[in-house]
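debug: dumping io for the single-chain case to check the tokenizer round-trip. Nothing else runs in this session.
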Amino acid sequence: MSSGVGFRASPRQVCPSGLFKFLQKKNKMDIFSSYATDETLENEGKWFPLSKTAKVKVARAGNEKYTDLLRAKLKEASLDGMPEKEANAVAEDILIDVMAQTILLGWEGLTYKGEPAPVNATQAKVFLKVKDFRKKIAGFSENFEAFRVKAEAEQGNA
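debug: decoded output
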């Protein structure tokens, strides 16, 4: 019969040492494997599918080219002092231009109003003026998971 007094063993006493170390590591979060991103991929872009026949090559938002160009264009525009509606329109045009040059880097299988769409910054601006397409591209570019070092290694692309 049990006396009600129990014996509690530590995990180290119950588990072989290798298993104990594995369990210790398993309960910790590694910042590098969780958050590190591939800077080359962030700058040169990654392909994202839009459909079975169309895909876009998108760089990560906030990459160095994007930040530098956005800062320069905003400084040049001098939005301070402009009426709000005009400033918003200018800011949107700047955003589209910067995204066309630094975020939407390529595509395959896309047309515009039924016409072939050459891959260049001018065509990218035309595409990005379509608000919901711009939001889709922005979503791809802001998805850090897609640019993670670990994500690329898991896909066999690193």
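debug: round-trip ok. DSSP finds ten helices and five strands in the chain.
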